[in-house]
Amino acid sequence: MECGKKDNLQNCPCTYAPCSRKGVCCECVAYHRAAGELPACFFDKKAEKTYDRSIDNFIVSREKT
């Protein structure tokens, strides 16, 4: 199975410019899971821009919507 990085980049909401995993969803999810976090695609635009990928931040940001 091929990654589809080019297609994934069109929909990737991550604004962290130096991220080497951008568009490589399997690596992104594995990286954030290992850190006890969620990837950018789980967050709305405002919460994503904080770069706080914690589960607590996800819950708080969802409660505000």
DSSP strand count: 0
Mean pLDDT: 92
The quaternary organization reads as single chain
Shape: globular
The radius of gyration over CA amounts to: 12 Å
Count of individual helical segments: 4
Described by strand count, sense and barrel closure, the largest sheet is: none
What series of H and E elements makes up the topology?
HHHH
User: Which structural class matches the secondary elements?
Assistant: mainly alpha
What share of residues are in beta strands?
Answer: under 5%
Cα distance spanning the termini: 36 Å
- The helix content is 40-55%
Describe this structure in words.
The protein is an all-alpha fold. The chain has a domain at 39-65. Helices cover 46% and strands 0% of the residues. The protein is built from 4 helices and no strands. It has helices at residues 5-11, 25-34, 45-48, 55-63. The longest helix has 10 residues, at 25-34.
Descriptive keywords:
globular; 65 residues; single chain; 4 helices; mainly alpha
Summarize the structure in short.
Helices cover 46% and strands 0% of the residues. It has 65 residues and is mostly helical. The protein has a domain at 39-65.
Per-chain topology:
Elements: H1 5-11, H2 25-34, H3 45-48, H4 55-63
